[in-house]
Design goal:
This protein has 106 residues and is mainly alpha-helical. The chain has helices at 7-13, 23-32, 37-44, 54-60, 73-81, 99-105; strands at residues 21-22, 50-51. Residues 91-106 have a biased composition (Basic and acidic residues).
């Protein structure tokens, strides 16, 4: 299922939230901030947990994998191999840079 929102849209919609925050707090905050229906829908799809910060929310929400995360093919492959939190979208799992990319960034 394709989503028309990005991780950046979601983070912008919850920028006024005091963390830690639960799923219901995040959905309500997005509604108050005038977020699009796609953003609110994406937040409704996250696991009902307490989130410590916006980064955790961004990693848990389901968005278009190509939206704005800037992961390389090597990082995407590592994400596919690595497990994440239950309910977390594969393309949003934490992944380190491969050694080759770290070397190239220097």
């Amino acid at each position: 299922m394709a989503h028309k929102t990005s991780a950046r849209d979601v983070v912008n919609a919850i920028k006024d939230v005091d963390f830690p925050a639960g799923k219901d707090d995040l959905v309500q905050a997005a509604g108050r901030s005038g977020a699009s229906q796609d953003v609110v829908k994406a937040l409704r799809g996250i696991p009902a947990e307490q989130y410590a910060n916006r980064e955790e929310v961004a990693r848990s929400v389901r968005v278009d994998p190509d939206s704005d995360l800037g992961t390389s093919p090597a990082q995407q492959a590592e994400q596919a191999r690595a497990g994440g939190r239950r309910g977390q979208s594969q393309h949003l799992r934490e992944v380190p840079k491969p050694p080759v990319e770290e070397e190239l960034d220097r």
